């Protein structure tokens, strides 16, 4: 502070962020951000990503794994532009991020300066929960506080503040951190009705979504399923682990297809959806959203998802509180053990064979070799079925993928998860196509020496699109083959050690080495082409 009793906007902002526990800033800087970092406090950490979508992916993984959010700093309009796809993903993931973007100096704004963001607050809309460029420099810390509390309120998500570069050295009133509640507790009357419906149901079924992990309701959902002998399906496209997948009541994964989904739930008289939309579809469908004779109750923290649900009663609530209420008031009923669909049979494969590993073999090997507590971050679209069948998530907080369908999240998110969870091994399971959307994330892993195992499921194509082409009855598809990518060279060029696996017999040793490594390591697994 020079000549003024008041702190600068920068001092007030960093004091506020410190009080809020937000001392890790993910960014990619430019001239319009530099003054924010004058005298960067020693207790803060700056995590550099080499492109802005990578920066947001890093922060998203970190915030989800840490459970408390993160701060992102982006370069005016261009950096926000690069980041937008990842901001969309963070919005769908319900990840609380406070995004602070640079802007040109206020005195220059009338003259359309270089790097000017003309409609800064509008640029990231509608995929931020709140967005603002404060009217005065003095209002910046207050805007940051509001943005943070808004990001943390259910449903969580990114918020955005644009800060002109000359604001940071102005003086302002300090802003103290406040307690602002973030948890929504459901309507007691509706919860009592739901508990009653559960108590009298003959064949209740649970559908579990990402809200379980977000709200830390793993123990509660297991207790509720066991109390009611209710099979548990994972909701279509769930982006987090939601139920132990080797539990005797685990039923499988619901498809994102209306008719197929209703068919899987056939026979249920009550469908209890916990922490998921009703429902996330990916392909067009007709007919009822539920099997005949079933009613539905949805619990989740998103009022919008409650409003657009296709059927049933929706209760807006934190999952831990909501399921806790159901546990309190729905006594155990004598019910027979449910009949569950058979588990996938393991294909017979010869470990010593010289031919390329299949994706099934890859998943089995990862399952066999992963260390206890390992976290899988997946972005390998056409391999998901093999993963679901052969690589079950059995521990809480052990799985992440993106809720948006936007590629480029998995690689940096895995690095962010590893930063937040140094005690657990992070395995990034990435398609060759997917890995290329945010390959620079490797560099951050190398610089921070985060021991992520990057496993590339390398099938040489955008295989999921080839499959979708079959769905749309397209005989030929342009732009789906990916020859000539050299992932070992790419990894080494970013400072990450790498191994290539071309034969089945090489796989186990390569995975074991990557899983034991204390630094990041990439394993490029050339998998056998699918038979058509
Ligand atoms: C940002 C973005 N661009 C394009 C797509 C469309 N898309 C969906 S799956 C896919 C192919 C992914 O290829 P790869 O990671 O190799 O996995 P594979 O399909 O081979 O399993 C593409 C391009 C997308 N989902 N997101």
Chain-wise SSE layout:
Blueprint: H1 9-19, E1 24-27, E2 45-48, H2 52-66, E3 70-74, H3 76-93, E4 97-103, E5 131-132, H4 140-152, E6 159-164, H5 188-200, E7 204-208, H6 211-214, H7 218-228, E8 232-234, E9 250-253, H8 258-264, E10 270-274, E11 295-300, H9 303-308, E12 313-316, H10 319-329, H11 359-369, E13 375-379, H12 384-390, E14 399-400, H13 410-420, E15 426-431, H14 432-435, H15 441-447, E16 453-458, H16 463-471, H17 487-493, E17 497-501, H18 504-516, E18 521-526
Parallel strand pairs: 1-2, 1-3, 3-4, 4-6, 5-6, 7-8, 7-10, 8-9, 10-11, 11-12, 13-14, 13-15, 15-16, 16-18, 17-18
Helix pairs in contact: 1-4, 2-3, 2-13, 5-10, 7-10, 11-18
The structure holds thiamine diphosphate.
Thiamine diphosphate is lined by residues 85, 380-383, 405-408, 431-434, 437, 459, 461-465.
Task: Tell me about this structure.
This protein is of the alpha/beta class. 33% of the residues lie in helices and 16% in strands. It is built from 18 helices and 18 strands. Helix 7 runs parallel beside helix 10. The mean pLDDT is 95. The protein binds thiamine diphosphate (TPP). Thiamine diphosphate binds next to helix 14 and helix 16.
């Amino acid at each position: 502070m020079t000549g003024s009793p008041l702190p600068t906007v920068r001092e007030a902002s960093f004091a506020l962020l410190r009080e809020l526990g937000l001392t890790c800033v993910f960014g990619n800087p430019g001239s319009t951000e530099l003054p924010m970092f004058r005298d960067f406090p020693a207790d803060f950490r700056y995590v550099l990503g080499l492109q802005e979508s990578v920066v947001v992916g890093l922060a998203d993984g970190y915030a989800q794994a840490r459970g408390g959010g993160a701060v992102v700093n982006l370069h005016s309009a261009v950096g926000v532009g690069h980041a937008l796809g990842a901001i969309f993903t963070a919005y769908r993931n319900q990840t609380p991020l406070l995004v602070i973007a640079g802007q040109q100096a206020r005195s220059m704004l009338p003259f359309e300066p270089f790097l000017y963001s003309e409609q800064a607050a509008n640029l990231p809309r509608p995929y931020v929960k709140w967005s603002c460029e404060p009217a005065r420099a003095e209002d910046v810390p207050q805007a940051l506080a509001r943005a943070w509390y808004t990001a943390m309120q259910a449903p969580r998500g990114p918020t955005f503040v644009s800060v002109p570069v000359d604001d940071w050295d102005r003086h302002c009133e300090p802003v103290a951190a406040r307690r602002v509640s973030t948890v929504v507790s459901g309507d007691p009357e509706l919860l009592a009705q739901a508990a009653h419906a559960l108590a009298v149901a003959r064949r209740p079924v649970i559908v579990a979504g990402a809200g379980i992990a977000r709200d830390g309701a793993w123990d509660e959902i297991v207790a509720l399923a066991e109390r009611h002998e209710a099979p548990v399906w994972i909701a279509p496209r769930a982006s987090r682990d939601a139920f132990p997948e080797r539990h005797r009541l685990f039923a499988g994964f619901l498809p994102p297809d209306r008719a197929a989904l209703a068919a899987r739930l056939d026979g249920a008289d009550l469908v209890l959806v916990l922490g998921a939309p009703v429902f996330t579809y990916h392909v067009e469908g007709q007919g009822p959203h539920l099997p005949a004779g079933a009613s539905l109750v949805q619990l989740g923290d998103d009022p919008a998802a409650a409003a657009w649900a296709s059927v049933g009663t929706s209760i807006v609530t934190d999952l831990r509180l909501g399921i806790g209420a159901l546990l309190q008031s729905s006594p155990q009923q004598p019910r027979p053990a449910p009949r569950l669909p058979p588990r996938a049979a393991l294909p017979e494969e010869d470990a010593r064979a010289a031919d390329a590993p299949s994706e099934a073999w890859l998943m089995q090997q990862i399952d066999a070799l992963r260390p206890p507590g390992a976290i899988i971050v997946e972005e390998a679209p056409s391999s998901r079925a093999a993963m679901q069948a052969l690589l079950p998530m059995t521990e809480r907080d052990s799985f992440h993928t993106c809720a948006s369908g936007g590629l480029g999240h998995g690689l940096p998110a895995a690095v962010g998860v590893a930063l937040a969870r140094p005690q657990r091994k992070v395995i990034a399971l990435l398609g060759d196509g997917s890995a290329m959307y945010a390959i620079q994330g490797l560099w951050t892993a190398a610089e921070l020496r985060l021991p992520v195992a990057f496993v590339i499921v390398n099938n040489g194509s955008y295989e999921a699109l080839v499959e979708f082409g079959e769905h749309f009855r397209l005989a030929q598809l342009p732009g789906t083959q990916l020859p000539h990518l050299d992932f070992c060279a790419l990894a080494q060029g970013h400072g990450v050690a790498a191994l290539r696996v071309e034969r089945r017999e090489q796989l186990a040793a390569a995975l074991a080495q990557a899983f034991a490594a204390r630094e990041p390591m990439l394993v490029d697994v050339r998998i056998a082409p699918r038979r058509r």
